[in-house]
Amino acid sequence: MMQVLPIQSAATTKECLPHGRLIVLTGPSGVGKGTLMRVLLQRHPELYYSVSMTTRSPRSGEINGKNYYFVSRSKFEQLVAQGEFLEWAEFAGNYYGTPREVVLNQVNSGKLVVLEIELEGARQIRASFPSAHSIFILPPSFEELEKRIRGRAQDSEEAIARRLRRAQEEIQAADEFDVQIVNDDFETALNALEAELFG
C-alpha cells in the first residue's frame, strides 16, 4: 500500500535542485543500506542524511532522532493528514515516511541530501524530483540476502517470509534506478557509492 500527498509541482521542485542535490538510496531489506550509510556519514560529515519516521519499534541500539523518528501509528496518520511527508508508505506492517520540510530546506540551502528509503517511496521521490540521483543496492545473490535477514535474529519466521517476498519484487525493480551497486564486498560497494556521490 502506498499513498502520497502532493507537495508541490515538479516544475517548482526542479527550480530548487540546482542549489543542492537529492540522492535516493534504496534496496531490499537486509542488503546493507544502513551499514553503508553509517560509514558514509562518518567519512563525509558534510552530507545531510534525512532521518525517516516510522511506526515500527526500535531495534537494539537504535536511537530516536538518529536512526529513525519513532512515533505511534496514530501520530503518523495525523502527520499524513497534515501533509507533512514528502513520501510515505506501509512496509511489513509499519509506516515509513520522509519529513517534507527539512529535506526541501536542506536541498535549497545547497546541501547534498541523502534519503535511504523503501522502493515505493523512492519511486515517488523520482516522480517528484526528476533530477534526483537514484541508487539501488543489490545483494550478491538472493540466497545471501536470505542469510543476512535470518542472521539478524530480530524477526519472526512470518516477518522473514514477508521480507523475502518483498525483496524479490524489489530486486526486479533495480533497473528503474540510475545506478545499481552490488553489496558483496563492503569496501568495494562503499567506494562505488562514494564515486556516485562525489565523482
From TrEMBL:
Gene3D superfamilies: Guanylate Kinase phosphate binding domain, P-loop containing nucleotide triphosphate hydrolases. Essential for recycling GMP and indirectly, cGMP. This is Guanylate kinase. Its EC number is 2.7.4.8. The keyword Iron-sulfur does not apply. Keywords: ATP-binding, Cytoplasm, Kinase, Nucleotide-binding, Transferase. It is found in: Cytoplasm. One of its GO terms (cellular component) is cytosol. ATP binds at G27, P28, S29, G30, V31, G32, K33, G34. Residues 20-198 form the Guanylate kinase-like domain. Its main location: cytoplasm. It comes from Tolypothrix tenuis PCC 7101. HAMAP family: Guanylate_kinase (MF_00328). GO terms for molecular function: ATP binding; GMP kinase activity. Belongs to the guanylate kinase family. It catalyses: GMP + ATP = GDP + ADP. Pfam families: Guanylate_kin. InterPro entries: GK/Ca_channel_bsu, Guanylate_kin-like_dom, Guanylate_kinase, Guanylate_kinase_CS, P-loop_NTPase. NCBIfam families: guanyl_kin (TIGR03263).
